[in-house]
């Protein structure tokens, strides 16, 4: 007899959270992803488009773009200094 209670549990697929429902810091990370995609395709991502996608005011959309650009720049600086880190413990 097989124990039905011991069956392996399969995790439920996580539903994608709508960008407008994310907290501000997660919205900034999402906008950073969008900016990276836009840069790869050779186009720009205006604040108005971000505002439309996030369902926020145009001013907030532009603010998220600025914050995402700052986040990406900070990440680039950190990557650039990676080889300069001390190996001493």
Structure write-up:
The structure is a single chain. By secondary structure, the chain is mostly helical. It has 3 helices and no strands. Helix 2 (47-54) crosses helix 3. The longest helix has 23 residues, at 58-80. The relative contact order is 0.12.
Note the topology.
Layout: H1 24-41, H2 47-54, H3 58-80
Order of helices and strands: HHH
Q: Supply the number of helical segments.
A: 3
Structural class: mainly alpha
Indicate the proportion of strand residues.
under 5%
* Unreliable stretches: none
Q: Classify the helix fraction into a percent range.
A: 55-70%
Outline = extended
Keywords:
single chain; 89 residues; mainly alpha; 55% helix; 0% strand
Summarize the structure.
The chain has 89 residues and is mainly alpha-helical. The chain has helices spanning 24-41, 47-54, 58-80.
